[in-house]
Amino acid sequence: MTAYRRVSAVAVAALLISGIAAPAALAATPDRAPAATAVAPSPNTVLVGAGLTLDLSALIDLEAHGIVAVGVGGAASAEGRVQLKVGKGSVLSHKNKKITGGKVSLVGGIELRKGGKKVVISNVVVDVRTGLITAKVGAKVGVGAAVKLGAVLKSDSVYAELHSGDSSATLSLAKEGIALNAAVLANIGTQIGTCIEVDADAVIDAALDVDLDLAVGAVVDVDLVAALGLDVALGLDLDLGLNVDALLDLDAAVQLDLGLGLGIL
Question: Residue 74: left if φ>0, alpha if ψ -120 to 50, beta else—which one?
Answer without folding.
Answer: left
